């Protein structure tokens, strides 16, 4: 099966594309840590933002912009792997905070 070449992922309206932060695999003293899916980081950098959505006559804009670092819900969004790189596609409502 051929590999799908994707040059750019653009989320649809109401969604944000985030690259999760790298998970620590070793402590400062050199101890190697076991990597566990339940311990994946809940923060990352926004790579792309979908268009605003409209609900009940109100416009809902994205809570973050490209390059922002955000904290998101632990079980929010969908994990997608493209070219061996993991991404999260999150709903606007899954973003909890912008990290400053």
Give a summary of the structure in a few sentences.
By secondary structure, the chain is mostly beta strands. 0% of the residues lie in helices and 40% in strands. The strands form 2 sheets. Strands 6-7-1-2-5-8 form a 6-stranded antiparallel beta sheet, with no helix packed on it. It has a two-stranded antiparallel sheet with strand order 3-4.
Provide the descriptors you would attach to this structure in a database record.
elongated; 6-stranded antiparallel sheet; 8 strands; 10 Kd Chaperonin, Protein Cpn10, Chain O; mainly beta; two-stranded antiparallel ribbon; 100 residues
Mean pLDDT: 86
Rounded to an integer in angstroms, the radius of gyration calculated over CA atoms is 15 Å
Structurally, how many domains make up the residues?
1
Question: Approximately how much helix is present in the residues?
Answer: under 10%
User: What are the segments in which pLDDT stays under 50 over at least 5 consecutive residues?
Assistant: none
The major beta sheet can be summarized as: 6 strands, antiparallel
Number of helices: 0
CATH class: Mainly Beta
Structural category is mainly beta
The quaternary state of the protein chains shown equals single chain
Apparent shape: elongated
SSE pattern, N- to C-terminal: EEEEEEEE
Secondary-structure arrangement, i.e. CATH architecture: Roll
Span from first to last CA? 43 Å
What topology, given as strand order, has the largest sheet?
A: 6-7-1-2-5-8
> Proportion of β residues?
35-45%
CATH H-level superfamily: GroES chaperonin
